[in-house]
Each structure stands twice: as structure tokens, then as C-alpha cells.
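Regression report. Comparing outputs from two consecutive submissions.

Submission 1:
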Amino acid sequence: MTIDNFAFAPAALTVRVGSTVTWTNRDEEPHTVVSADGTLHSPGMGTGATYSFTFTKAGTVDYVCSIHPFMHGTVVVTP
């Protein structure tokens, strides 16, 4: 996953349980990856920084950048 031009790409991603997803910030501004349910909670990431998370249960995780809440993404985790 990339964070570029104030957007998560792809905006929606489907993975299997046990998959690890890594977000890489390619913007000049810091960003975060945070879900309302608390599943995802990255630190602030500067340019070139990464955040990885391994999904251990099925479901849909919607997330935003807490610094720029207009940035939205979704990870769908299948069994």
C-alpha cells in the first residue's frame, strides 16, 4: 500500500487472514493509519516511513489518516 498525493492506494484491498500489509508514505507530509475500532494505530509516518500490520481475523477494517481525516481506506480480510 502506498500513501501518495494525500490518498491511500489502493483505497480498498482484500487479503486473507494471516496476511501482512505494509503502508509506505510517499508524501512530503506526515500521515497515520488509524481505524475507529482500534485494530490499526500507526505512529506518525514521515516521508519514506512504513507501517506494517498482520491481520489475524476476518472482517472489514475501515481506516483514515488521523492527521488528514478526509483520507479513507478499507482492508477486507477473508478467511
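Submission 2:
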Amino acid sequence: MANLHNLKPRITAAPARIATMTPGAWRSDKTSSTARGYGYKWQQARAAYLVKHPFCVYCLRDAGIPLSDDATAVGLACMGKGIGLPMATVVDHVIAHRGDMKVFWDSANWQSLCAPHHSRDKQREEALGM
């Protein structure tokens, strides 16, 4: 019977996680979302905005469909491209407000996004400083 030799481990230590927020960032402290402005008043404003702007602007952009307030036109354009309606679920701040309540409540700075675009593309853009 052959002798078994111990093999050296091939797995190295995992690299340290990269911090996603810089020290002193507006949301690095442990305040609640309500304390940061995302309370009942925001939920009401968000719901009203999504009623008026129901489609994800990134999905429309990616599909080459012009942004329109006319739901019928958007629906026909999506049907023509063979895609479903790109419904938004998130109201995003185009320019990050960083705790500035004047920028936070400026509805001209809002855009409708679907959850995947908000969690993936928008976060990547902000990380790259776009």
C-alpha cells in the first residue's frame, strides 16, 4: 500500500473586502433610512412619481426606445421590439443627494428605474464617479 503524503493547501487567504463607503460618507453612520429622509413622506412622493413615470429609463435607453409620458406609445414600441414593458419600482436621484435635503426633494432630480438597473448599473456609475 502506498504512503499518502500531505499536500500543501492551495487555497490562499481571501483578500480583504473593499469598503463600499468612504469614512465620513453621509450614510456611513448607523442612522435609519427614515432619519435619512426615506420615511412616510418619501414613500408617498415615490408612489406618486411612479404613477406618473412608470417605466425604467435605463431599460428604455438600452432598448433604444425614446422616453415618453405616453404609455401607449411606449407599449407599442416595446411590442415592436418583442420585449415586455420595463416597469420601474425605484425612484432614483440622478445626482446623489449625499444628505442634502434640497437635492433630495428636487423632483427634477428623480428618475424611475427597475430594481436591477438601480442595484447594478446605477451603483457602478456612482462608484466610478459618473
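Expected: both submissions complete independently.
Actual: both completed, but the second showed a warning that disappeared on reload.
Relevant detail on submission 2: The longest helix spans residues 40-52.
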